[in-house]
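Regression test case RT-17, inverse folding.

Input:
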């Protein structure tokens, strides 16, 4: 009896001890974790969600049949090879058509491309399409010609007001003591934001520094080379008081020299052109063009691909405006610039 009672007491003690152990919280196990990156970027060595992904970026020019945009495409393809994970789709209208650009952007949205870079024929018309692309989660930037009121993430190109001012400065430099006469401005598509800004920069500077020069209304060629040649030839014939021409794009000079200046005395009318393609350099060599203000068209495509890649692959936010810079080409530097074409180092 006594033995049985002792065993019952012992069992009760063991039961109480077990209940105490079960009821007491155990010491928590410490979980070691890497501190999160304050910027939210993946940790070094951490697997990336984009590993192995190929990005499709679209380059949308104002129009296909323009050598400056073919140069931009070449730059985009080169950068795509360097990056290794980018495919370029090059789509643009056959002529400088803003509505066609809108249709192209909407098509790219439907295809769910990973990024778009567009040169805008008309800022206002392109705004809604750019906004639709951004709202659909497709990073969209502009190059060459901007749509500043849109949701585009950045504009890569020249400061077009300053580029126009540079054209006017060069014209005054080469006019020297000539302070009277008429100046013609050759433009492309009326309303194109980059061209309108260049016209504004040129005309305002001429009005301030050479008020006796009469600036004629800008004459459009709709970004067409042959029409540019015709417009230039016509203005040379119709205006005997003409002392200077500013071309805010290079269209007439894309034709083989002497082009519109056939039969014209080199230098009688001072001409400032835009861009610096090989054909254009021949006009400087012949003396029919006194200076070129050259954009870095190859970089339009090359840098567009880099900027879009930085956005989607590296989560970088670009500045709203990235100045591509420009080059001035005059007779004394034309051969040096020509050498840059061998390596596309401009």
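Golden output:
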């Amino acid at each position: 009896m006594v033995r049985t009672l002792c065993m019952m007491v012992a069992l009760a003690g063991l039961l109480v001890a077990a209940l105490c152990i079960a009821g007491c919280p155990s010491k928590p196990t410490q979980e070691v974790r890497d501190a999160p990156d304050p910027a939210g970027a993946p940790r070094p060595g951490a697997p990336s969600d984009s590993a192995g992904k190929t990005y499709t970026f679209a380059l949308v020019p104002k129009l296909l049949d323009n050598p400056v945009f073919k140069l931009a495409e070449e730059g985009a393809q080169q950068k795509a090879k360097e990056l290794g994970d980018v495919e370029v789709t090059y789509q643009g209208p056959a002529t400088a058509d803003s509505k066609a650009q809108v249709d192209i952007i909407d098509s790219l949205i439907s295809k769910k491309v990973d990024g778009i870079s567009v040169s805008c024929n008309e800022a206002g018309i392109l705004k809604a399409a750019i906004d639709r692309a951004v709202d659909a989660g497709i990073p969209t930037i502009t190059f060459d010609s901007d749509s500043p009121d849109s949701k585009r993430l950045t504009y890569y190109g020249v400061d077009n007001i300053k580029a126009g001012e540079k054209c006017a400065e060069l014209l005054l430099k080469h006019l020297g003591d000539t302070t009277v006469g008429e100046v013609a401005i050759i433009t492309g598509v009326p309303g194109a934001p980059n061209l309108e800004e260049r016209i504004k920069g040129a005309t305002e500077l001429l009005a301030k520094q050479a008020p006796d020069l009469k600036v004629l209304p800008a004459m459009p060629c709709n970004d067409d080379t042959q029409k540019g040649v015709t417009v230039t030839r016509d203005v040379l014939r119709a205006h005997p008081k003409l002392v200077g021409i500013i071309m805010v794009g290079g269209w007439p000079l894309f034709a083989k020299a002497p082009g519109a200046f056939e039969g014209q005395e080199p230098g009688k009318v001072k001409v400032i052109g835009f861009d610096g393609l090989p054909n254009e350099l021949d006009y400087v060599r012949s003396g029919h063009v006194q200076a070129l203000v050259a954009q870095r068209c190859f970089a339009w495509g090359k840098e567009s691909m880099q900027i879009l890649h930085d956005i989607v692959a590296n989560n970088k936010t670009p500045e709203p405006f990235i100045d591509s810079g420009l080059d001035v080409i005059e007779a004394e530097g034309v051969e040096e610039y020509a050498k840059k074409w061998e390596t596309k180092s401009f």
